[in-house]
Design goal:
The protein is an alpha/beta fold and 378 residues long. The chain contains 13 helices and 14 strands. Strands 1, 2, 3, 4, 5, 7, 8, 9, 10 and 14 form a 10-stranded mixed beta sheet that branches. The chain has a two-stranded parallel ribbon with strand order 6-11. Strands 12-13 form a two-stranded antiparallel sheet.
């Protein structure tokens, strides 16, 4: 592959990049994490560029902020490259990839066996779709409880709160987790997603794994609990928490930080409750097990972990590519872009926007898979 390099460092503000048409990123999914800082430094030392051209991709809107930074950075440093990522949601993105209309898909859910089988029709040379974990995000529990800036909950109390079986903030079960805290005699208003989402699936995976008696429902993108109120998308849940004293809901950490919301610390059984932070979420990724085979890097998280400093509610987003037989017209550009996103610069950028970088041992495997994509093809 012929690599070109930019002649120098170029920094763009986010507004300037968008005004110049440097990014085509359409937020069609309800998890769109819009709201980056007004000025983001897109300069990178010695970024390796692929060939000039246009790359089409779509999928997970949970990684929209990360993709926005990645795309703008790559394009600011690699002249003649256009990366068009549409944040249509994981399901739509996977379907477009399986139809052969995009170079890769972003997904915050693992492909089904049927989807992997279907991918063999679009991946050439007996190839199939594989998962490349590229970013992770802590799912925070945001709440509106004046006078209570710090709050500890565990899986059992959270399950009962979201299933409408613990209904007041001064319930003995909550009080036992918060000794010395003056909890108000106030109704709890739990909010959940009205639309299907990977965020819901990951939260309910945590509840089901850590408190199966209190949350007997199988993990699902659709809400299975009883009672509570619903809102569309993470932004809708944020609005409900802001407007309703006594409310609690779940959304990506960036939403909580952007809106100044207090977030729950999770009592996992470790010595200290664990806060929703980038570092603590990265620790969860470091504990994840690769369950994919033959080069596939699908991960299994330990939602029931009791390790110190490990935040257990984390959403992983994957880039879906063919293990071999990617489209020869776009393979080199795809490889170059993903080499950047999986590289040190691309991963370092994640923490600045409330995403958790993938742990060193796993991201090294991702880099190996990307570097090996269809070598000699084209």
């Amino acid at each position: 592959m012929k690599l070109s390099r930019t002649s120098g460092r170029r920094a763009l503000s986010l507004g300037a990049a968008l005004a110049a048409g440097a990014l085509v990123l359409t937020g069609c999914g309800s998890d769109d994490n819009s709201g980056l800082p007004g000025a983001v430094d897109f300069s990178v030392d010695d970024l390796r560029c692929g060939p000039a051209g246009t790359l089409l991709a779509s999928g997970s809107s949970a990684q929209a902020n990360a993709m926005e930074v990645w795309v703008n950075t790559y394009q600011a440093n690699c002249e003649g490259s256009q990366i068009n990522y549409k944040a249509t949601g994981s399901g739509a993105g996977v379907q477009e990839f399986l139809q052969g209309t995009t170079a890769f898909a972003g997904s915050d859910s693992l492909l089904s066996e049927g989807e992997v089988a279907e991918s063999r029709r679009v991946c050439r040379d007996d190839g199939r779709a594989i998962h490349l974990p590229m970013a992770a995000g802590p799912i925070a529990l945001g709440y509106n409880l004046p006078g209570v800036p710090e709050l500890n909950l565990d899986a059992d109390t959270l399950a009962q709160v979201f299933d409408s079986r613990i209904t007041r903030w001064n319930d003995p079960a909550i009080a036992a987790l918060n000794p010395g805290v003056e909890l108000p005699d106030l109704a709890i208003t739990p909010f959940h997603r009205s639309d299907g989402s990977g965020t819901t699936e990951n939260l309910t995976s945590y509840l089901h794994a850590s408190a199966p008696e209190s949350w007997p429902y199988e993990p699902d993108k659709a809400w299975r609990g009883h009672g509570g109120q619903s809102a569309d998308g993470s932004s809708g849940l944020v609005g409900m928490v802001q407007q309703n004293v006594g409310a609690i809901a779940y959304f990506e950490l960036s939403y909580a930080h952007q809106n100044g919301l207090d977030t729950v610390r999770i009592d996992t059984g470790a010595d200290e409750p664990v806060a929703a932070t980038v570092d603590n979420s990265s620790n969860a990724i470091a504990e994840a097990e690769v369950v994919g085979e033959d080069g596939d890097l699908a991960l299994e998280l330990d939602y029931a972990t009791r390790e110190e400093g490990v935040y257990p509610i984390v959403l992983v987003t994957y880039e879906i590519v063919c293990d071999t037989g990617n489209d020869p017209a776009t393979t080199e550009l795809t490889r170059a872009f993903l080499e950047y996103t999986a590289g040190e610069e691309g991963q370092r950028a994640l923490a600045e926007i409330d995403y958790a970088p993938i742990s060193d041992d796993i991201i090294e495997q991702v880099r190996d898979r990307v570097e090996a994509m269809d070598r000699g093809q084209g």
